[in-house]
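REQUEST FORM: STRUCTURE PREDICTION
Request ID: SP-0412
Submitted by: Lab K.M.
Chain count: 1
Length (residues): 390
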Amino acid sequence: MATDTVPIAGSVDPRFASLRDAFRANFAEEEEIGATLCVRVGGQTVADLWGGWRDEARTRPWQRDTLVNVYSVGKGVSTVLALVLAERGLLDLDALVVDTWPEFGTHGKEVLRVCDLLSHRAGLPAPRESLGRGAFRSWSRLTETLAAQVPWWAPGEHHGYHVNTWGFLIGEVICRLTGLRFGEALARNVTGPLQADFHVGLPEALHARCAEVVAKNASSLNRQSAAEAFPPTGDPVQDEMIQKTYFNPPELSGTGVVNTAAWRSAEVPSTNGHGNARSVCAVYGALLAGLVSDALLTRASAIASDGVDRVLGRHSRFGLGFQLAMPERPMGRSSRAFGHFGYGGTLGFADPDAGIAFAYVMNRPGVRWQTPRVGRLVDALYDALSPGVS
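STATUS: Completed
RESULT:
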């Protein structure tokens, strides 16, 4: 589609004009439908762009205040809530989980610390008990099930990406400490003070601002497509764990419900945060500007889990909640960058070396986290910062 027919709005600092070019190119060359990009450098916003359409039919232009499901990019935002509470002395990262959540201390889980939950070491990437449709809406059903069950591996001894359960685990600790629902705790302590338009448990009054997620599994998923996404490994226990990580309850990854009012209103911190690039960038920008102490941020962005991931079956690296840069999965061009990718190529990250806060979200996910669209944008940013340096 010709880029002159794509509605694109916003502003770009003249030094970073190539970011607008890259943003436009994604529509022309990569079948972008709707997207938003925001970048801060040294505390100043150098790009704030939005464009395309909120729907697959391309009838409703993306607006400045359009919201979209950002999938796992929300883990980074939720991590900041944990850090803010730790900064204030309410959350002890080294405390045992059972100190706050006594019912959690079953089947060897009594040894787990809060930092283990944050770094994907709990051994609880999926409920073992098969939960029925709609259970994703019940916070207590998910947290009580996870507290009572036998872990999939020895707690604390290995790590594995807790794709959907991560938010319920650290979230329950936060809810018990604050006496608030998770979305309310996030709004009171992080997004509200920062005026960041980001929500876990989207108020019904804001649903009309949402973009439609356009993805193969947005409307349905069957046994065949699930098997194609996660081919059998030959280990029945591993296969059960992986299937349940993504599809127990059946809609836990947003499958079949991501564009519904029920999903938008639910609180699934790992997966269903709704926001835009501006709001995600604001959160990472605040971290770089001193939202929490340097010592705490250094700890959160240091390696806590590294190596072969028990869920993904490949190398992964985490700090306390944040994904960390790896050669095979860079975030910009700094080895100290931290943040979080989301399904299909959404990304929010901070580069403390270059003073960059970056966020890109869209409504047509690519394959898992990989998409040339985000790579094009990141490259344009760093090339503008250091012309002629790759």
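NOTES: The chain has two domains: 3-72+272-290+324-385, 74-265.
Reviewed by: T.R.
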